[in-house]
Specification:
The chain is mainly alpha-helical and 682 residues long. Among the domains are: 265 residues, no CATH class; 73 residues, no CATH class. It is built from 28 helices and 4 strands. It has a two-stranded antiparallel sheet with strand order 1-2. The protein has a two-stranded antiparallel sheet with strand order 3-4. A hairpin with a 2-residue loop joins strand 3 and strand 4.
């Protein structure tokens, strides 16, 4: 059963990709949705057996690599961490497959699209189910490759090509750091199996563990779009909307989070790494929220929200609250998939328009889509008793209850980000659904609600976005819960849930700090509704000031990260690469490499051939020189009072001197050329 969970998406991908012409578009739809549906049922069963019955499963398929100390097997583990995340991956993936039937009804490459989607799900399952770092890395590379294919699905569009190349190359930076981290793990622990590495971690040098932790975090930064390796994610919106929902809700961006969660026994013994992770996560959350304030592309606004929420997850990991980070990852997968699919329904029905400034008034044309997007938005805002509330607010409370400068930094930025998230989320709702119509008439006349294939996934995801957090909060993050067993490790010194829950009592006036994120979220949402519905002139007056224009430029340019990359890093890298290519590759390496060696041998052979001149006096000279050389070697020990090594050295020098002089002496002085009846000497 457990292997079927992984294999069924692979079979679906192979059937749609290699047999697409045989089974047709409808056959591809049926096979993909049925395979993913069966996997979802099986993962729900596995959730009961593994998580609720506390029975982790280990599967070993045989040896892969055996090289002295390095022994790696094809092995998979289904513990509480794996199954909890796989539940979100498979449920969201299945619903997105069903939704894609509606979204791409007449695309000529339907089978290829469904093959890529299923392959992506397969790669993510291999990543999270692998029982050692190498198997995990196989899944890591599969999703990296398939993400390139999915983002570049419309391969005739230049922007899609650019976005895919950017995503692939930026992820390669993280893959390089991750590979070095794996090498460091093997050098330190002598193994790449989770069980061996994690059991030895408490006894290892802290500096070595810090270096390994930072290398692993570098790989996670690229996959999970953390500063400064974040700029690929907004560009990946060039892909079809179901791809955006799959990549940025449950699969690709959560791979880095999973890596850090799985390596919790290593991170816990490196306070320096945890400090850096906390600061980067909080900074990323704030950075993305400020950029989302001024974004105008419907999907890019949601993408900025994804980066911001990933920042919260990384921040929770830095706070050593791995169960909370995983809970927010699962919760986020449901309401972010809902937002993306709702945005896709809007775009699909409104003439493929994505600029929110050219929409408006769609609440009367798309009431159901408005309802589900409002549910997703409220869950994203951590509205009390919706799914997002049980994890997002808890992360901020845990930051306040940790009593250190770095945690206070995370608390302040996390709290401010909550208010900014509410503002730009309701800005999106206002500009798309509530303000006066700003689009063309024909788009409104053609707008329509989605078909049943889209309505079912939206309803299911809405239910998850409302109830999942309430139903599973005590299990995932409850006080004293042992739900995760040994799959996650929190050092006893880092358990701060008690302080976060009980240090601020309702009788104390400082209890408002606990409510501050909710208060700021309410203020942000109300401000957006007022500014864009009742008083839009306030926004205009702010942007007309000097400070307003500078802030708008800063946020709209994403803090000039792309400018810095292009003008200072990549351009200098290209210049360096050009210099290396011209001066080292084509200069030094060719001179001392095969090209230079072959030329030298050819020239030496040519010079040696000149010794065979055919002149009898020359041969007599060779005989005389050879005889003299033989006498010197024979009587050198008697003539020279030197040891044998000096004699050999002198002999070699003398022989080379004679040989070189012979070459010089017997080079021809010229040649007679006959041309046009004339004789010339050259």
């Amino acid at each position: 059963m457990y292997l079927l969970i992984i294999i069924l998406p692979l079979l679906s991908s192979i059937a749609s990709g290699l047999l697409g012409r045989k089974i047709g578009v409808t056959g591809s739809h049926i096979i993909s949705c049925v395979c993913l549906g069966i996997s979802s049922v099986l993962i729900a069963t596995a959730f009961y057996e593994v998580c609720l019955c506390n029975s982790p499963v280990y599967v070993n398929l045989g040896s892969w690599i055996e090289s002295e100390l390095l022994t790696i097997s094809w092995e998979f583990i289904f513990d509480q961490l794996t199954v909890s995340l796989a539940l979100a991956v498979l449920f969201c993936s299945t619903l997105i497959h069903i939704y894609s039937i509606y979204y791409l009804p007449s695309d000529p490459h339907n089978q290829r699209f469904f093959s890529y989607l299923s392959a992506f799900t397969f790669g993510m399952l291999v990543l999270i189910c692998g029982a050692n770092f190498f198997v995990m890395f196989v899944g890591w590379e599969i999703i990296g490759l398939v993400s390139y294919l999915l983002i570049n699905f419309y391969f005739t569009r230049v922007q899609a090509n650019k976005a895919a190349i950017l995503a692939f190359t930026m992820n390669r930076q993280g893959d390089m750091l991750l590979s070095i981290g794996f090498m460091a793990i093997f050098a330190l622990f002598g193994s790449l199996n989770y069980s061996t590495v994690f059991s030895l971690a408490p006894y290892m040098n802290e500096t070595a563990l810090t270096i390994i932790s930072l290398l692993l975090f570098g790989g996670a930064c690229a996959k999970s779009a953390q500063l400064p390796l974040h700029s690929w994610l907004p560009g990946s919106m060039e892909a079809p909307t179901p791809v955006s929902a799959l990549l940025h809700a449950a699969t690709l961006v959560t791979a880095g989070i999973y890596l850090l969660l799985r390596c919790s026994p290593i991170l816990e013994y490196s306070p320096t790494a945890l400090l850096i992770i906390t600061i980067v996560g909080a900074s990323t959350a704030f950075f993305a929220a400020t950029c989302g304030l001024v974004a105008n592309d419907l999907k890019r606004i949601i993408a900025m929200s994804t980066i911001s929420q990933l920042g919260y997850m990384v921040m929770a990991i830095g706070l050593s609250q791995y169960n909370v980070a995983l809970f927010h990852t699962v919760n986020h997968a449901f309401f972010k998939a809902l937002l993306f699919l709702g945005a896709g329904a809007v775009i699909h029905s409104f003439s493929d328009q994505q600029d929110v400034r050219k929409m408006g008034g769609l609440i009367k044309f798309l009431p159901f889509t408005y309802s589900v997007m409002l549910v997703g938005t409220l869950s994203l805002l951590a509205t009390p008793f919706l799914t997002g509330f049980y994890s997002k607010d808890l992360i901020i409370e845990l930051a306040y209850g940790s009593y250190s400068f770095s945690k206070m930094y995370a608390f302040i930025l996390g709290t401010v980000t909550a208010g900014l998230t509410a503002f730009y989320s309701f800005r999106l709702i206002s500009l798309v659904f509530l303000v006066s119509p700003n689009g063309n008439k024909q788009s409104y006349l053609n707008s329509h609600e989605s078909s049943l294939a889209a309505i079912i996934p939206l309803i299911v995801l809405s239910l998850f976005s409302i109830f999942f957090g309430y139903l599973f909060s005590d299990m995932f993050v409850g006080m004293g819960s042992d739900f995760f067993g040994n799959s996650l490790f929190i050092h006893p010194n880092n358990i701060t849930l008690v302080e976060a829950e009980y240090s601020l009592s309702p009788e104390d006036s400082s209890f408002l700090i606990k409510l501050l994120p909710s208060i700021l979220s309410l203020i942000g949402a109300s401000s957006a509704l007022i500014f864009y519905l009742k008083a839009p002139e306030i926004i205009l007056s702010v942007t007309e000031t000097s400070i307003g224009r500078k802030l708008y430029t800063l946020f709209n340019s994403k803090y000039f990260f792309d400018v810095i990359y292009n003008n200072y890093i990549f351009s200098n890298g290209f210049k360096l690469g050009y210099s290396i290519s011209k001066q080292i590759d084509r200069g030094v390496i060719e001179l001392v490499g095969p090209y230079g060696l072959s030329n030298s041998i050819f020239k030496l052979a040519k010079d040696i051939s000149k010794l065979d001149s055919g002149v009898i006096t020359t041969y007599a000279l060779y005989i005389t020189m050879g005889f003299i050389f033989f006498l010197f070697v024979l009587f050198s020990y008697l003539i020279l009072d030197q040891n044998i090594n000096e004699i050999i050295r002198l002999t070699i020098i003398l022989s080379f001197s004679i040989f070189a002089s012979s070459l010089k002496l017997h080079q021809p002085f010229g040649a007679l050329n006959f041309k046009d009846g004339k004789t010339t000497l050259t």
